[in-house]
Amino acid sequence: MSKGIKHLVSISDLTTPEFTSLVNRAAHHKKIFKSGQPVSSEISDALKGKLVAMLFSKRSTRTRISTEGAAVYFGGHPMFLGKDDIQLGVNESFYDTTRIVSSMTSCIFARVNSHSEIQQLCEHSSVPIINSLCDTYHPLQAICDILTIKEAFGETKGLKLAWVGDANNVINDLAIAALRSGIHVSVAVPRGIEMNPTIVDVAKTVSQETGASFEVTNDPKSACTDANIIVTDTFVSMGEEAQKQIKLQQFSGFQVNSELTKLAAPNWKFMHCLPRHQEEVTDEVFYSNNSIVFEEGENRLYAAMAAIEAFVIKKELA
């Protein structure tokens, strides 16, 4: 059914020019939005009279606000479909729900549990699917993260990004996004945790294309040495609450603190996609002048705008 429809599933599915275009368009729409001036009818009427479906199986703050804001920016009407609002998974199959929802809407922003759910949506939907988070990928976060880095440093090429934490959906897309932007990537994960081999393979290929280096280590200090950007995320993802104590023991020594940031480049910045927990990063770092977490959070809005423009309104990516 979705033949000929382009979906946003992961950064790995994009070419470097396509990804760069998304970041640039996010910056473009941010400039318009922050100017305080009325937007042109070309923007405000682009989705006039159309619904933007938000199929969310998980709680959300930034994703919900940014998606609704982006839909309104283009004149669309956002419709939130939470797990307790519709029949999905209760009295109706994924296939039936997808067919019905896509028949009435311009696109579906999907914040779901498993990557297989995103794949099912893409297979059966008659409109573009925007992956707003699954257990394997988080492309909108990667778009906003590179925009945030670009704003902080002016130029991305040659920077070093250190990831300190779990091998999760955020780094799966951020690693590829950073490499496509010419940023060297060093991923530090605890022993016993492995990055997704598919992501590692894509990262190595992109690394060869752009000349940016990629490595996976078990040593946070090594990763943070001379890093311009230090990034972490939750150690216990949604759905892993039962494993919390085991995971916290596993992540001993991985808290981002002054000991790690002293190893970084003088101009280091700290990023976190939120919500944060004390075990991941100290207040000293999180609320420091080097932290750009709140700029990063705001930029989710402009990433959603860029995604709607490219995949729903169908303005050329590159």
Q: Report the CATH C-level class of the largest domain.
A: Alpha Beta
The CATH architecture of the largest domain is 3-Layer(aba) Sandwich
Tell me the radius of gyration: 19 Å
CATH superfamily of the largest domain: Aspartate/ornithine carbamoyltransferase
Could you give a short account of the major beta sheet?
5 strands, parallel
Query: Can you list the strand order of the major beta sheet?
Result: 7-6-5-8-9
Given the C-alpha coordinates, what overall shape results? globular
What is the count of DSSP helices, taking H or I runs of 4+ residues?
Answer: 13
Q: In angstroms, what separates the terminal alpha carbons? A: 26 Å
What's the overall average pLDDT, rounded?
94
Q: How many separate domains make up the residues?
A: 2
Question: What ranges have pLDDT less than 50 throughout 5 or more consecutive residues?
Answer: none
Q: And the CATH topology of the largest domain?
A: Rossmann fold
Helix content: 40-55%
Give the topology string: H per helix, E per strand: HHEHEHEHEHEHEHEHEHHEHH
Question: Can you characterise this structure?
Answer:
This protein has 318 residues and is an alpha/beta fold. It folds into two domains: 11-138 and 300-312, Aspartate/ornithine carbamoyltransferase (Rossmann fold); 141-297, Rossmann fold. It is built from 13 helices and nine strands. It has a five-stranded parallel beta sheet. Helix 5 links the parallel strand 3 (107-111) and strand 4 (129-133). Helix 6 (139-153) packs across helix 13. 48% of the residues are buried.
